[in-house]
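Thread: quick sanity check before group meeting

JM: Hey all, I'm pulling together slides for Thursday and realized we never actually wrote out the predicted structure for the chain we discussed last week. Dropping the sequence here so it's in one place. If anyone has concerns about the input, flag it before I start.
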Amino acid sequence: MEEIVDARGMACPAPVVKTREALQRGCREFEVLVDNPTARDNVTRFAASQGCAVEVSEEKGTFRLTIRREGEAGEAPVEAPASESPARPEEKTVVVLSADVMGRGEEELGRILMKAFLNTLSECDNPPWSLVLFNRGVLLSVEGADTVPALSALAERGTKILVCGTCLDYFGLKEKVAVGTVSNMFEILETMLVASNSISI
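JM (edit): ok, ran it. Output follows.
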């Protein structure tokens, strides 16, 4: 084992950042230690997106992720974000929702408008590539919310729905997510940076 990355106790998105740094250093096989399921899932998803194999084990509340880079040993390590020049996808729109209401003023009207907006979005010819929910926007994705059917319809049509894990923790709703992927700021930022269009509501 080349290295052990101890990310226990670290807040989002530090475990993912530490994993990326290990890959940047050229590590081909290393372990990442985390102490919560969200960090486990975030690191696993990120490592897989980088072409790595991941094995997960748990002991006394600690998740041990063994990460192995696949491919030839001579391959270049992952580049740092500052030097990356990712190909910008065409017509990939990200819609960012930071509230469970639309507009300011009457909250009840705002909820009606938000539901109508999501219903319309789910039926449009070109649904967004990704939907990002943070702050009170995460409330749109939890069990019992009347916006879940529209979000589910979007997910079925291929829209990637990212739900801020830190926000869910704040509201105590992480176990109540009905649709979408519990995500982290690193993944959310990367999604927004490579999009061709971004719409904030």
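AS: nice. Residues 101 and 110 are 4 Å apart (CA to CA). Strands lie at 3-6, 29-34, 52-59, 62-69, 93-97, 130-133, 160-164, 181-183, 197-200.
JM: adding both to the slides.
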